[in-house]
Structure to design on (274 residues):
């Protein structure tokens, strides 16, 4: 790592920084993720079959084909550091930095404290470092458009010329998204709860063309993956059947329109323009 590794010191936390306010009436993602941080990591290996399927598919597709030995890696919205846990055993020589607006999520990670940055990534001075891989997994859903653009500008400035940017987006044109929007009308709001659907968080969703329009001016998209081909609420009512069918669909190459319709999230693997 050539950049300065200033950890979560007194100036690195949300205290002392302008905290980004959610829109009036919406819940604050920092409060939400601080609140669920203690149990979040168990979603990758825990008892809940749907969570295990969802998080493992995302992780596997994100790191597929990458050799990160001796590489600089940045994880934006790192959460409880499950990507770090996956990668450090395979690539012990990588230099890993984790950023997140939720101090609680980072506090529950195994990422060494000197490699943690609390707050929006673009508010930190990381020096001239260029990263060989920058991940943003499950994060754009909780960012307003301005916040996302600031992150994309930062990533374009800090990605190594041969580096990979890997990000996921909630798919606005999916059956799952429509079913969740419908269900929201029947769910009792629970602003102090642990469930995204009832939390009052503002959810940001994008269509496939909208993601392309947003990314292509800055990045060259090399590969797409469709994620999570289960449909709410059947994935909760019939998890075994839903997950078996989803695993079959998950083997499809590329992201044809019919598969996008059946996929709750889209993953982009991108690089800088030559
Ligand atoms: C669904 S979790 C995903 C965590 C992790 N990336 C993973 O794949 O398990 C979303 C994370 O994004 C973080 N987050 C939300 N808004 C953010 C922002 N504007 N900048 C950085 N992190 C953010 C949350 O605090 C939370 O830890």
């Amino acid at each position: 790592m050539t950049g300065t590794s200033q950890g979560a010191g007194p100036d690195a936390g949300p205290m002392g920084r302008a905290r980004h306010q959610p829109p009036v009436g919406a819940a604050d993602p920092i409060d939400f993720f601080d609140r669920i941080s203690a149990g979040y990591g168990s979603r990758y290996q825990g008892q809940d079959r749907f969570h295990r399927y969802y998080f493992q598919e995302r992780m596997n597709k994100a790191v597929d084909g990458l050799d990160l030995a001796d590489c600089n890696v940045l994880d934006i919205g790192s959460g409880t550091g499950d990507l770090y846990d996956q990668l450090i055993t395979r690539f012990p020589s990588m230099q890993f930095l984790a950023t997140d607006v939720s101090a609680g999520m980072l506090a529950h990670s195994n990422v060494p404290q000197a490699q943690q940055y609390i707050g929006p990534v673009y508010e930190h001075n990381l020096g001239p470092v260029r990263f060989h891989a920058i991940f943003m997994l499950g994060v754009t859903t909780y960012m307003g458009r301005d916040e996302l653009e600031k992150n994309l500008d930062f990533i374009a400035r800090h990605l190594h010329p041969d580096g990979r940017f890997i990000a996921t987006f909630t798919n606005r044109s999916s059956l799952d998204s429509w079913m969740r929007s419908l269900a929201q009308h029947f769910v009792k709001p629970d602003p102090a709860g642990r469930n995204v659907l009832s939390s009052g968080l503002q959810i940001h969703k994008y269509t496939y063309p909208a993601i392309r329009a947003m990314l292509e001016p800055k990045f060259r998209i090399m590969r797409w993956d469709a994620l999570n081909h289960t449909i709410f609420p059947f994935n909760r009512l019939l998890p075994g059947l839903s997950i078996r069918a989803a695993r079959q669909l998950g083997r499809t190459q590329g992201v044809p329109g019919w598969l996008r319709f059946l996929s709750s999230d889209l993953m982009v693997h991108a690089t800088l323009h030559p």
Q: What stands out?
A: Residues 1-17 have pLDDT under 50 and may be disordered. The longest helix spans residues 49-63. The two ends are 23 Å apart (CA to CA). The CA atoms of residues 209 and 215 lie 10 Å apart.
